[in-house]
Amino acid sequence: MNDALIISNIVLWVAVLALLLVVLALSRQIGILYERIAPMGALMMDSGPKVGDAAPRFELPTLGGTTLALGGADAQHSHTLLFFLSPTCPVCKKLLPILKSVRKAEGAGLQIVLASDGDRPEHDEFRHRAGLTDFPYVLSTELGMKYQISKLPYAVLIDGSGRISAKGLVNSREQLDSLFAARELGVASVQDYLDVAGSQAGHKHALSKEHA
C-alpha cells in the first residue's frame, strides 16, 4: 500500500514537472512569434498634422533655461526628432539609451527634442536621474494637443525646411529607425512603402497571368 502511494506521488510530480516545461516552452514560442509578427515600422495614427505638412510652429522654454523654436526652417539641423515621453512610461525609459545612440550615429545634423507635460519638479528630477540634461526638454500641453498625441512614446521627424518627414508610435529600436528609413524612401512610413510594394507586385503578377 505504501509502495503504491509513493509511486503515485512520484508519477504525479513527474507529470507536474513535465507540464511546467511545456508551459515554459509555449511561453518562449509565443514571445518568438510576437517578435516575428510585430509591425516593422512605426505605427501611424490618422490624427494630427500629416506627413508632408508644415510642422506647427512653437517657441517654448526648455527645462535647461533656453528658448526652443520648433517648426519653420532650421539652418542648423537637417532634421529634428520630436520625442514625446513621460517619466512614468516604461517603454519611454527603455528607448532613452537608444535615443542617445541615434543622436550619436546621426551626428550634428539631427536635433532630438524631448517633449511632455505636467509638473516641472517631476520632470526636472527625471531629467537629471536619466542623464538627459544635454537634450532640449520642453513641457507643453498645447504641443501634445496640436500633434494629437494619445499614446506614448510617440515621435515626429521634422526636416530642415520645417515639414514633417515621418511620424508614429515607437515601441522599439526598429520602429524608431523606421522613421529615418521612411525619410530616405520618401514615404510616410515603412508600412506604406511595403503596402505599395506589395500592391505593385500583386498587380504585376496579375498582368503576367493575363498574358500567359
UniProtKB/TrEMBL annotation:
The chain crosses the membrane at residues 6-26. It comes from the Bacteria. It is found in: Membrane. Keywords: Membrane, Transmembrane, Transmembrane helix. InterPro entries: AhpC/TSA (IPR000866), MeN_DH_accessory (IPR013478), Thioredoxin-like_sf (IPR036249), Thioredoxin_domain (IPR013766), Thioredoxin_ResA/DsbE_sf (IPR050553). Its main location: membrane. PANTHER family: THIOL:DISULFIDE INTERCHANGE PROTEIN DSBE, THIOREDOXIN-LIKE PROTEIN HI_1115. May be specifically involved in the processing, transport, and/or maturation of the MADH beta-subunit. This is Methylamine utilization protein MauD. It comes from Roseateles koreensis.
